[in-house]
Design goal:
With 188 residues, the protein is an all-alpha fold. It has helices at residues 6-65, 106-109, 118-127, 131-136, 143-150, 155-167, 172-187.
């Protein structure tokens, strides 16, 4: 058989497709909301990816035009910046604004106050320490460990701990924690 002209083939193909789509219409109508939602989600994600690609290209271009400075603020110290000798300088606690690197809670367990003598102050404080300090091993407790033990303590013990803290290390977080617990315990 001879091939029909292009226009006729196009019209017959369109008519058959329309007939097939008409037969699928009841099923298509049920699936249409999900299809539309899926297409919208696809378009939104594609748009986000395109925007991200444009931002990345902009960053690369700006970086070529204005190279970043490799300057590091003088207050920023990183492990790589420390001396490689591994000496005790990177482990010892310090006061006077130096970096504190002893343990996870270095902020809360830093050494003595600036105006006290470390050796005589500790010896005197240990001699005058209330029994609760020894019972709890208070000197080695972190703030979180102390908080966990406070609920079972008497007000007198809490006050003794607060007085001891004020007389020795005077760490503000510990003092605040103890004072707040005393307030809550006496309010009951």
């Amino acid at each position: 058989m001879a091939t029909a002209p292009y226009g006729v083939r196009l019209l017959v193909g369109a008519a058959v497709t329309a007939l097939e789509e008409t037969r699928k219409l009841p099923q298509t109508i049920l699936m249409y909301p999900m299809t539309v939602a899926s297409q919208v989600a696809h378009l939104v994600m594609k748009m986000q990816q395109d925007v991200a690609d444009l931002v990345i290209k902009g960053d690369e271009t700006l970086e070529q035009l204005f190279p970043p400075k490799d300057e590091q603020p003088e207050w920023a110290t990183f492990d790589e910046d420390l001396d490689g000798d591994g000496g005790d300088e990177s482990v010892r606690p310090s006061v006077d604004g130096e970096r504190l690197t002893e343990g996870r809670f270095a902020l809360f367990t830093a050494g003595e106050p600036e105006n006290s003598d470390a050796t005589s102050g500790t010896a005197t404080a240990t001699a005058d320490a209330p029994d609760i300090v020894a019972d709890l091993d208070y000197e080695s407790l972190t703030l979180a460990q102390l908080r966990a033990r406070l609920t079972s303590m008497r007000v007198a013990d809490l006050e003794a701990l607060l007085a001891y803290e004020e007389a020795t290390k005077a760490r503000a977080p510990f003092q605040t924690l103890l004072a707040n617990r005393i307030t809550r315990a006496t309010a009951k």
